[in-house]
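Q: I'm writing a short explainer about Biogenesis of lysosome-related organelles complex 1 subunit 7 for a general audience and would like to include a description of its predicted shape. Could you first generate the structure from this sequence?
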Amino acid sequence: MLQTIVRTETLLCNELCRINEDQKMALDLDPYVKKLLNARRRVVLVNNILQNAQERLRRLNHNVAKETARRKALLESGILLPGSPSK
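A: Of course. Here's the predicted structure. Afterward I'll give you a sentence or two in plain language.
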């Protein structure tokens, strides 16, 4: 979805530049182009933040699964875990 948004924004920016060059009457589209570029920068920034958060969550989930498997193996082997009630 992000690629679609960025691609659309790039196409809009290119189209605005082309229209600006084709117009006999010079329209000042530079502010709009700058707004689009700023929007693109913010979208890319948010995407990077979300990707980093997703990667951290993936690693956390992996570590939790690994610890769960380790504890399950210890329980099945009959070894008491620290802090667990004795029988």
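A: For your explainer, you could say: Helices lie at 2-22, 30-77.
Q: Perfect, that's easy to follow.
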